[in-house]
Specification:
- The chain has one domain.
- The chain is globular.
- Helix 1 crosses helix 2 and helix 5 crosses helix 7.
- Strands 3-4-6-5 form a four-stranded mixed β-sheet, sandwiched between helices. It has a two-stranded parallel ribbon with strand order 1-2.
- By secondary structure, the chain is α/β, with parallel strands linked by helices.
- The chain contains eleven helices and six strands.
- Its cofactor is Zn(2+).
- InterPro entries: HtpX_protease, Peptidase_M48.
- Keywords: Cell membrane, Hydrolase, Membrane, Metal-binding, Metalloprotease, Protease, Transmembrane, Transmembrane helix, Zinc.
- One of its GO terms (biological process) is proteolysis.
- GO terms for molecular function: metal ion binding; metalloendopeptidase activity.
Length: 348
């Protein structure tokens, strides 16, 4: 160092890797330089834009590690099939041959996807209750907070539709517009007496689909063959669901257990579900049919999904069940047909 060179000052703020998970299960802890995350409505503080993507609720939500590779494969397969179908269509028209229905479906896929998205959006606009400061204000605020948390410049529209007992929500778009639809039954878990964090997690999950680009026209067109690719296509959709879960976890990680409990047992019994007990079974439920059920599923099976939401040190599993943590002793299963013993009664 030269004599007249000023002494460098130490950098203030968090270290270079403030969002690395800690502990065997990656239990999140507030990074250095940030206030601890209170269990309040506002969610974790928004980190600086230069922070890396990760699985911690304090960083930017990460895409699943297999999402982009699987997307590239599916898009390439779809493009090749579309070009072949277009060539066969031209040849059939010139030769006067009969056109196959599947051939027509592939050739007109761009128009069908565009029309389907437009009809879906119009259906919500004319039948759904649009969230606003006066209609479902809590949900409206959750959507706006999630959009801000994920760095979106435009808050998507949000609608509530009649659920008739179904637990569901989805995100889509048309043109440059994006929207979220929440079934009315989900708002019954959002009351002050129930689990508002669970609703916030679910809304963060759906807004996450938009933030991650899952609702764009070109992506959905490139994934047009997913229903005809049962293993490969479903794996891509599961990877996208894990990505959306990362966004929901980033928005309100305290709502993950209740949200999964709602998907497992419904809106009335969600608090009875033991999140850790069910997640533990991801490593113990094994067999060929277990693998097949997951491989053919469009969403991660619930036990694997709960495991991924609990273990934030790695991405959720797509094909092979999670491995138990070192030294972990899973609960001893009760033999089939036997009644498990009740816990001892308290003394006194």
């Amino acid at each position: 160092m030269h004599p007249h060179e000023p002494t460098p000052q130490p950098h203030a703020g968090p270290p270079a890797e403030p969002f690395a998970p800690t502990g065997a299960w990656g239990v999140p802890s507030a990074p250095t330089g940030y206030p601890p995350y209170p269990n309040t409505y506002g969610g974790p503080p928004v980190p600086p834009a230069q922070q890396p993507r990760g699985l911690s609720p304090w960083g930017r939500p990460a895409l699943h590690s297999w999402e982009i590779p699987l997307l590239v494969v599916v898009v390439v397969v779809t493009a090749l099939v579309y070009l072949i179908a277009l060539a066969l269509f031209v040849d059939a028209v010139l030769s006067g041959a009969t056109l196959n229905d599947y051939l027509l479906l592939l050739v007109f896929a761009p128009a069908l996807v565009w029309a389907g998205r437009g009809i879906n959006y119009a259906t919500q606009r004319v039948n759904g209750v649009k969230m606003s400061p006066t209609q479902f204000p809590e949900g409206y605020r959750m959507v706006a907070e999630a959009a801000a948390r994920f760095g979106m410049t435009t808050v998507p529209d949000a609608y509530v539709v009649l659920g008739n007992g179904q637990i569901n929500a989805f995100a889509s778009g048309h043109g440059f517009r994006r929207f979220v639809v929440v079934y009315s039954d989900l708002f019954e878990i959002g009351g002050a007496a129930r689990e508002p964090d669970a609703l916030a997690f679910i809304i963060g999950h759906e807004v996450g689909h938009i933030a991650a680009g899952h609702t764009s026209y070109w992506r959905q067109l490139g994934m047009f063959l997913v229903p005809f690719l049962p293993i490969l296509g479903n794996a891509l959709i599961r990877a996208q669901e894990y990505t959306a879960d990362n966004h929901g976890y980033c928005h309100r990680h305290t709502g993950a257990p209740a949200a999964m409990g709602t998907l497992a047992a419904g809106k009335y019994l969600n608090t009875v579900v033991g999140f850790d007990e069910m997640a533990d079974r991801a490593a113990t439920e094994k067999g060929g049919f277990v693998w097949l059920v997951n491989a053919l599923s469009s969403h991660p099976v619930l036990t694997w999904r709960m495991w991924a939401l609990r273990d934030r040190s790695r991405h959720g599993k797509l094909f092979w069940r999670p491995s138990p943590r070192p030294g972990h002793q899973p609960p001893v299963p009760v033999p089939y047909g036997e009644v498990p013993g009740l816990p001892p009664k308290p003394v006194g």
